[in-house]
Amino acid sequence: MESTEYEEGLSPDEAGQRLATEGPNALPASARGGAWALVREAVTQPMFLLLTGGALLYLLLGDAREGALLATMVLLTVAIDLYQEGKSERALEALRELSSPKATVLRNGQWELIDSREVVRGDLCLLREGDRVPADGVLVRAEGMAVDESLLTGESETVAKSTQPCTAVQALLQGAVGPAGGQDTPYAFSGTTVVQGHGLLRVTAIGPASHIGRIGAALSDVGRGRSPLERQVGRLITVFATAGAAVSVFLVAYYRGTGGSWLDSLLAGIALALSLLPEEFALVLAVFPALGAWRLARVNVLTRRLSAIETLGTTSVLCVDKTGTLTENRMSVAALLADGEMLRVNEATDALPEPYHRLLEFALLASPADSAEPMDKAVQRLGQRALRATEHLHPEWTQAAEFGMTAGMRAVSHAWVGDPEGSAAVGAKGAPEAIIDLCHLPADERDRVLAQVDALAAEGLRVLAVATAAYDGPPWPSEAHAFDFSLLGLVGFADPLRPGIAAATAECQRAGIRVVMITGDYPATARHIARDAGLGDSEPVTGDELAALAPAALAERLRTTNVCARVAPEQKLAIVQSLRASGEVVTMTGDGVNDAPALRAAHVGVAMGQRGTDVARQAASLVLLDDQFSSIVAGVRLGRHIFANMRKAMIYIVSVHVPTAGMALLPVLLGWPIFLYPVHIVFLELLIAPTCALAFENEPPERDLMREKPRRPDAPLLGPGALAYGFAQGVVVLLTVLLAYGWAVRHLEPSQARAFGFCALVLADVGLIFSNRSRSRTSIGAMFTPNPIAWAVCVAACAILALAVLVPFLAELFYFGPVPLAALGTACAIGASSVLWFDLLKLARRGARRLGLAG
């Protein structure tokens, strides 16, 4: 590649041509196989197999019309399942598209942020700390760069990078050997992570042609085990299915033994098995998290692991960064302090008194011009305005050495050379205590400076100190302590709180969620911001305290404060572990490479989408697309909402299966005509499935959703109280329909009695929808709560019921006889009246909940 290509990069046309020719920069997807895979999954479900068996029995031993009707309804049921599964898959695919990693590439001389799948061979990619390497390539520039290659090698040690050739790695790119473990290698590999420094990568292999592609590794989320919720529901399904199989065999034998035909015996047994098979549980677990993730994306929270949704609503402690999450991360210089004198400045300041020129000059020299750091940008803005007509700007100087920030030195230093034979000017800026240490100030001078820092910090300003030194290098020293620094003064930065922060924290407090602010800021600054944000006025715990405290003492200390100040990113892990050990459910935010362990250790890790690194995003369960605290609170609220709606759907499933199973079994045991055949079960399934997957998922939130304490993370979705409530609802419907059918059997023909009882059953099931839609409202009140899908399902069910009862051809296929309209109206009224009993049950459940007895 010629040097001009380094300067301009690829043209859009050339990049597009290579993308079309060589394909996207992506590994083969581990997709489910598209529509055919969904069809195969649907037709192997027990429900489908049982219904198909019933249809074949009709066709072989009964009426061909009845078999054709049942087969048609089976296909309709499968179509509904496919639509719901497809909707979930589309929602997840949209989220996968949204969460695709990004890459910064040079195109036509301009840096562009693109989807990493659009990276092509020959692209020049900018790599920075925290970035994931998008493709295999050669480093044409590497500044202090180190890469984590454990994904390929399994070695935890990072690998230093340079632009010098390495024979071993050259062989690697040719496919001869595995990744080299040596240092100073000039190649970077797809999927590895930059943990230090920055560089430029010329792409040589993409997608399947990359090293990780050739060895068949997967960069997407590793397959996970079943969540606690899935295991719980799996046990419920197993219990129901086992009981259904046993009782169905008994029913077939019993009915045949009492003189019933084999056809009726088998059909009654299939109907009972279908009525006891709660396949909707699995449907709810598939649809709700997928659509919930889509809803979370609409409030700027991207879900990387669906299991996080059920945990998000249980959050009891929310640990958040100050800068950029509570505040706007829009820094501006607000104060300069030099020679003990304070000067207030703002974005309109365009000139400074002479005593402040050197302070700002060396603050500029310690702040890279191309930095994305908000404080660096604020210094650059003020310096370019206020020093433009002075000799304190040095565009002709060359940076000769850089000493970056480390865990032990919270300051950066840059050495600049004006002419090859002149001495270097060194500028340093950083935490006041770090600069004081570099300047080796005596105790009294140190105390005086720290008092000035406290005064600025008490106003909520973030404070940096600035120092200067002269040096006759090269050679350059290995650390900044080798320079003889002199303190120039302090710079105070204002970073306003985001709008609505106080309201959001108040909402958390009402919901029983404690907000803990974690920051690297000076304690007085952190305390002021916390007070303004509504977090109280507790004494901050500092990073030094945190390091010195034993685990038990730290846990106690964290119970008494909502502010952690002067905390290094790697200390976040200790905070998470301490809170978890205290029984808290922790949601933690983070954006940097060093935040990754804490994000992974938290129950729910939330990475910043705008300013976060790829390392943080890969470690997190959720990604905050707008970096706003209010979006986190909205996510917690929505997590509670999703879980509440799942619980409503599950209770409805339990309650609706009780009368269905009871009416498939009890009439036979009582010697009455068979009430339910498979065709009736399919009809009810057409009502139940969309109700569970669509109507309840679309239910608006309860009014007191964020006024309750977080539920326990180990609390089951269906506790004993919830199961008892659902079962009690079902028993009410069962008794109502059984009495209605018993009366009809004595006064009407069997086919007419079946139509009478079935109308009562369907209207009672519709009443169950409204009874379970709202926990805090009565069934009548729920009718006035907006949910168009619930109404659409109910209206459709009633319309199809009317056709099945009133159209002679359909009535015959449903084993219905002609019933006077007045009698049908009476049956519907009997079924609908069940809602009154449901509301009495709801009042009883509220009382039980107040006593702590309901689940």
TrEMBL record:
<dbReference type="InterPro" id="IPR044492">
    <property type="entry name" value="P_typ_ATPase_HD_dom"/>
</dbReference>
<dbReference type="Pfam" id="PF00122">
    <property type="entry name" value="E1-E2_ATPase"/>
</dbReference>
<feature type="transmembrane region" description="Helical">
    <location>
        <begin position="267"/>
        <end position="294"/>
    </location>
</feature>
<feature type="domain" description="Cation-transporting P-type ATPase N-terminal">
    <location>
        <begin position="1"/>
        <end position="63"/>
    </location>
</feature>
<dbReference type="InterPro" id="IPR004014">
    <property type="entry name" value="ATPase_P-typ_cation-transptr_N"/>
</dbReference>
<dbReference type="Pfam" id="PF00689">
    <property type="entry name" value="Cation_ATPase_C"/>
</dbReference>
<dbReference type="Pfam" id="PF00690">
    <property type="entry name" value="Cation_ATPase_N"/>
</dbReference>
<feature type="transmembrane region" description="Helical">
    <location>
        <begin position="233"/>
        <end position="255"/>
    </location>
</feature>
<keyword id="KW-1133">Transmembrane helix</keyword>
<dbReference type="InterPro" id="IPR018303">
    <property type="entry name" value="ATPase_P-typ_P_site"/>
</dbReference>
<feature type="transmembrane region" description="Helical">
    <location>
        <begin position="821"/>
        <end position="841"/>
    </location>
</feature>
<keyword id="KW-0547">Nucleotide-binding</keyword>
<keyword id="KW-0812">Transmembrane</keyword>
<keyword id="KW-1278">Translocase</keyword>
<feature type="transmembrane region" description="Helical">
    <location>
        <begin position="790"/>
        <end position="815"/>
    </location>
</feature>
<feature type="transmembrane region" description="Helical">
    <location>
        <begin position="649"/>
        <end position="669"/>
    </location>
</feature>
<protein>
    <submittedName>
        <fullName>Cation-translocating P-type ATPase</fullName>
    </submittedName>
</protein>
<dbReference type="Pfam" id="PF00702">
    <property type="entry name" value="Hydrolase"/>
</dbReference>
<dbReference type="InterPro" id="IPR059000">
    <property type="entry name" value="ATPase_P-type_domA"/>
</dbReference>
<dbReference type="InterPro" id="IPR036412">
    <property type="entry name" value="HAD-like_sf"/>
</dbReference>
<feature type="compositionally biased region" description="Acidic residues">
    <location>
        <begin position="1"/>
        <end position="11"/>
    </location>
</feature>
<feature type="transmembrane region" description="Helical">
    <location>
        <begin position="717"/>
        <end position="741"/>
    </location>
</feature>
<feature type="transmembrane region" description="Helical">
    <location>
        <begin position="753"/>
        <end position="770"/>
    </location>
</feature>
<dbReference type="InterPro" id="IPR001757">
    <property type="entry name" value="P_typ_ATPase"/>
</dbReference>
<feature type="region of interest" description="Disordered">
    <location>
        <begin position="1"/>
        <end position="24"/>
    </location>
</feature>
<feature type="transmembrane region" description="Helical">
    <location>
        <begin position="675"/>
        <end position="696"/>
    </location>
</feature>
<dbReference type="InterPro" id="IPR023299">
    <property type="entry name" value="ATPase_P-typ_cyto_dom_N"/>
</dbReference>
<dbReference type="InterPro" id="IPR023214">
    <property type="entry name" value="HAD_sf"/>
</dbReference>
<feature type="transmembrane region" description="Helical">
    <location>
        <begin position="42"/>
        <end position="61"/>
    </location>
</feature>
<keyword id="KW-0067">ATP-binding</keyword>
<dbReference type="InterPro" id="IPR006068">
    <property type="entry name" value="ATPase_P-typ_cation-transptr_C"/>
</dbReference>
<dbReference type="InterPro" id="IPR023298">
    <property type="entry name" value="ATPase_P-typ_TM_dom_sf"/>
</dbReference>
<dbReference type="InterPro" id="IPR008250">
    <property type="entry name" value="ATPase_P-typ_transduc_dom_A_sf"/>
</dbReference>
<keyword id="KW-0472">Membrane</keyword>
